Amino acid sequence: MVPVLAFGGILMAVMQTVVVPLLPDLPRLTGASAGAVSWMVTATLLAGAVLTPVLGRAGDMYGKRRVLLIALGLMTLGSVLCALSSDIGVLIAARALQGAAAAVVPLSISILRDELPPERTGSAVAFMSSTVGIGAALGLPLAALVIQYASWHAMFWVTSGLGAAGLLLAWWAIRESPVRAPGRFDVVGALGLAAWLVSLLLGVSQGGQWGWTSPRVLGLFAACVLITALWCVQQLRAERPLVDLRLAARPRVALPHIAALLVGFGFYANSLVTAQLVQAPEATGYGLGLSIVGSGLCLLPGGLTMLLFSPVSARISAARGPRVTLALGAAVLVVGYAVRIADSHHLWMIIVGATIVAIGTTLAYSALPTLILGAVPAGQTASANGVNVLMRTIGQAVCSAAVAAVLVHHTSLVGGVAVPTLHGYLLTFAMAGTVALVACAAALAIPKDRAGGGLRKVAEPAETVRGEALEGA
């Protein structure tokens, strides 16, 4: 079961990153503008942000395996549509379908809590969390290789095959968990969540193109504030809310969510900047002039390191608690960015710095779901972890906008083309390192679990609810 769920998590991350090498050529390949092509990334981001907590709540209510299969099916369908079409409208819609895959990881973590014995839960959850980074590191070189030696449609056929394999494996290997949270689905809450998330993330992702002070962006942010306020009132009054805000406001839940947002910001800067930096022309004085494949391979050691360090994270959490693991992970992120600032000229040092950031990401991401699992009832694990993943997504979106803003304001002409300066890249590293330092402080502020039950305590509510469900069957 664990390898199958991990394969699904890796697929999710691969689907999100495979389009990145295509972005410079898609305007020519599709006949669309660069602004329209950028929606192939934005649509996936928006759909994933909205659907992650919604599908998480649906999994808690109607069955995690059932909703997991739906998410994998939508992801695969989106890939098939991308393989069949060159129309930008179809491509954007298909990429939005692939955004449903963002719910795979929180649903899988909840299944692991329900089905595994306590002594295996920690390592399995840590491994599941690390699949996000592993898939991201594998997706870029995989896509670049297929595009270079075949075609971009062939790349989507490859991902379609992988998605179909993941769907069939999940259908065969995963059994439905009897742990449920009965009640009526909060449709109004889901629509409200979608409205304020779209307003926020659309403004953040398009602010650089539309202008941060443009009426459209300011209007989106104003709408986000208003809708969020109304949504919070509705959630507090709802009998079965989509997001239990009273639970989310508790320090043992709220602080991990804040840390997730900050770590998402800190980790994503490394992925955004490394490929650009090593592909920069040598005439810049710092660039290495690597190909797309070469730049993707620079991130590969980090992905492999994440695979190796996920069991280490589980051991640290078992010995010292996930709170310490999260703080340590954020601190390692700071060290990684210090290395990036110290030397971004030599390829081996760039790889070392990126790999250290990957290690910190593994430690932090592996600890976050364990913290959430220990702080929420068994019937809310998928939805609570969905919110935690949502916070990571928001952090990544804000990071993308912040990095773009910094690099746009620090450029120089090389061969008549404006390219970011080394100073701009170093500023992004300093910014990400500072955010990671704040994440470390947030982790240390999380209250300790006085019950001292650890992972065994996490599993007990699931057993209780499972027994009640079986008695009522």
Verbal overview:
The structure is a single chain. The protein is mainly α and 473 residues long. Helices cover 79% and strands 2% of the residues. It has helices at residues 2-17, 26-30, 34-37, 39-62, 64-84, 88-98, 104-115, 118-149, 152-173, 187-210, 215-237, 245-248, 251-279, 292-320, 322-342, 347-373, 381-408, 422-444, 454-472; strands spanning 411-414, 417-420. The protein has a two-stranded antiparallel sheet. The chain starts with a helix and ends with a helix. Residues 451-473 have low confidence and may be disordered.
Topology:
Elements: H1 2-17, H2 26-30, H3 34-37, H4 39-62, H5 64-84, H6 88-98, H7 104-115, H8 118-149, H9 152-173, H10 187-210, H11 215-237, H12 245-248, H13 251-279, H14 292-320, H15 322-342, H16 347-373, H17 381-408, E1 411-414, E2 417-420, H18 422-444, H19 454-472
Antiparallel strand pairs: 1-2
Notable features of this structure?
mainly alpha, 473 residues, two-stranded antiparallel sheet, globular, disordered C terminus
* Broad shape: globular
Share of residues in strands: under 5%
Rounded average pLDDT: 85
**Helical stretch count?**
19
**What's the arrangement of strands in the largest beta sheet?**
1-2
Unreliably modeled segments: 451-473
Determine the structural class based on helices, strands and strand pairing. mainly alpha
- The count of strands amounts to 2
Question: What's the gyration radius in Å?
Answer: 21 Å
Report the order of strands and helices: HHHHHHHHHHHHHHHHHEEHH
**Helix share of residues?**
over 70%
The biggest beta sheet is recorded as: 2 strands, antiparallel
Distance between the termini: 25 Å
